[in-house]
Design a protein that fits this description.
7-stranded mixed β-sheet
Length: about 400
C-alpha cells in the first residue's frame, strides 16, 4: 500500500481561508487509499507494533489513537474542522448536546463552588443548573441574563462558572456576551456559552470573550435529522487541566459514525444556514402582519427589544422565529394541528421546517409562574425554518391560522 497522500494545504493556510472553504477542507486525515470523502473509522480499538509502543502511547510519548472512547480518526477530523470554524484552540465531540453542556460544567466544578446562570435556558440546561449541580454541593444562582448588574451582584468568592445561551430558547432573548465575559473574567470565573441557536456561522462567542462554547451538533450542524452529537470548544489549557481526563474517564463519547455524519454536515452548513435564515427573515416580516398573531420575535427585526445588540454580536438573525398565536394554548394547538408543510417536532435546525409549543414540550416541566418569568406564554410557538420555499411556508401558516 502506498503512503497517505500529502495534503497541499497546511493547517496554517487552511486557518487563513474563509469559513466556507475551511468547512470543506479543514481537518482532513487521508488514509493511503487517498479517498476524496473523509473515511469512516468504525473501530473500538487500535493495535500496536510492540509492547513498548503501547506503553509510550498510554504515557503520551507516542502520538496516536488508543481507544475510541478517548479519540478516533473520524471524530478527530470533525473536532479539528469545527475548531477551525469557531476560532477555538481545540474541540471535543460528545454523544449529544446535553452531554457537552454537562461535561463542560462538571469537569471544572467541585463541592463548594458557585455557578451563575441566565434563567432563560433550555429546559434540560435548567435541570443541570438547578437540580443536578446542587446534588454535588455546587450552589447556583439564576439571573435575568439581560441585566448586567444582576450578573455582577450574583458573584461570590466561590463563583467559578457563568453559563448562558444567546439567543435563548424559545424567546430569542439576547445576552450581551462580551459584557458578561468581562464580569466573569473580573470574578475569576469562566464563561460557558451555548451557541446552538446562533450557530457558528452567525455568532462567535470566543471572539466575544467566552472561554468555552458548547453545541448540540444534532441541530444545524447535522441539520438533516439523522444523528445526535455535541461539541465542546475551548483552550488547550482547559482541555488539559479539566476536560480531557473527565471525558476519558466518564465516557460521553460520540459514535464515529455520528461524527462522520456531522463532519459531512459541516460542508453544507453555510449554505443551509444562509437559506434558512433568509426565509426566517422573510417569514418574520410576513407574520408580523397577520391579524391572529399578537407578537413576532426575531433578533434582526427592528422591533426586537435588543435589536442593536443583535446587530452588534450576531452576523444575522438566525433560523428561528417565535410568535404568539391568539387564543392561548387552545389557539396554538388549533394552529399547530392544521399545519401540513411545517411539522410538529421539538427539534430545530433541520432541513424541514419544524414547530413546537414550548409550554407543553421543551419547558413543560416548569411551573406556569416560572414559564411566565422566562417569557413563555401558552400561546407561544417556536418555528425552526427549514429549506422549503418560503412562499409554501407562508401559505401553510396562513392556512393554519384560519383555524384559530
Amino acid at each position: 500500500m502506498s503512503e497517505a497522500p500529502t495534503e497541499k494545504l497546511t493547517a496554517a493556510e487552511i486557518a487563513e481561508l474563509r469559513p466556507d472553504t475551511r468547512l470543506v477542507h479543514g481537518g482532513i486525515l487521508r488514509s493511503p487509499f487517498a479517498e476524496t470523502s473523509e473515511a469512516l473509522f468504525l473501530t473500538q480499538g487500535y493495535v500496536y507494533d510492540t509492547a513498548e509502543q503501547a506503553e509510550a502511547r498510554f504515557k503520551g510519548d507516542d502520538p496516536g489513537f488508543i481507544y475510541t472512547r478517548y479519540s478516533n480518526p473520524t471524530t478527530a477530523m470533525f473536532e479539528a474542522r469545527l475548531a477551525l470554524l469557531e476560532g477555538a484552540e481545540v474541540a471535543r465531540a460528545t454523544a449529544s448536546g446535553m452531554a457537552a453542556v454537562t461535561s463542560a460544567m462538571l469537569c471544572q466544578l467541585k463541592a463548594g463552588d458557585h455557578v451563575v446562570a441566565a434563567r432563560a435556558l433550555f429546559g434540560s440546561c435548567r435541570y443541570v443548573v438547578e437540580e443536578l449541580l446542587p446534588r454535588f454541593g455546587v450552589t447556583t444562582t439564576l439571573v435575568d441574563g439581560t441585566d448586567l448588574a444582576a450578573w455582577q451582584a450574583a458573584v461570590t468568592p466561590e463563583t467559578k462558572v457563568f453559563f448562558l445561551e444567546s439567543p435563548t430558547n424559545p424567546t430569542l432573548e439576547l445576552v450581551d456576551i462580551a459584557a458578561v465575559a468581562k464580569i466573569a473574567r473580573a470574578a475569576g470565573a469562566r464563561l460557558v456559552v451555548d451557541n446552538v441557536f446562533a450557530t457558528p456561522m452567525l455568532q462567535s462567542p470566543i471572539a466575544l470573550g467566552a472561554d468555552i462554547v458548547v453545541y448540540s451538533a444534532t441541530k444545524h450542524i447535522d441539520g438533516q435529522g439523522r444523528c445526535l452529537a455535541g461539541v465542546i470548544l475551548c483552550s488547550q489549557q482547559f482541555l488539559t487541566d479539566h476536560l480531557q481526563t473527565f471525558l476519558r474517564q466518564t465516557g460521553p463519547s460520540v459514535s464515529p459514525f455520528n461524527a462522520w455524519v456531522m463532519l459531512k454536515g459541516l460542508e453544507t452548513l453555510p449554505l443551509r444556514v444562509e437559506r434558512s435564515q433568509a426565509s426566517a427573515t422573510a417569514l418574520a416580516d410576513r407574520l408580523a402582519g397577520e391579524a391572529k398573531i399578537g407578537k413576532v420575535i426575531y433578533p434582526y427585526r427592528a422591533d426586537h427589544p435588543q435589536h442593536e445588540l443583535a446587530k452588534r454580536q450576531m452576523r444575522g438573525g438566525g433560523t428561528l422565529v417565535t410568535f404568539e398565536v391568539d387564543g392561548g394554548k387552545a389557539g396554538a394547538f388549533r394552529f399547530l394541528n392544521q399545519l401540513k408543510v411545517v411539522r410538529i417536532s421539538n427539534n430545530l435546525g433541520d432541513a424541514k421546517s419544524l414547530v413546537t409549543h414550548p409550554a407543553t414540550t421543551t419547558h413543560q416541566r416548569f411551573s406556569p409562574e416560572a414559564r411566565a418569568e422566562m417569557g413563555i406564554s401558552d400561546g407561544m410557538v417556536r418555528l425552526s425554518v427549514g429549506l422549503e420555499h418560503v412562499d409554501d411556508l407562508t401559505d401553510d401558516i396562513r392556512r393554519a391560522l384560519k383555524a384559530v
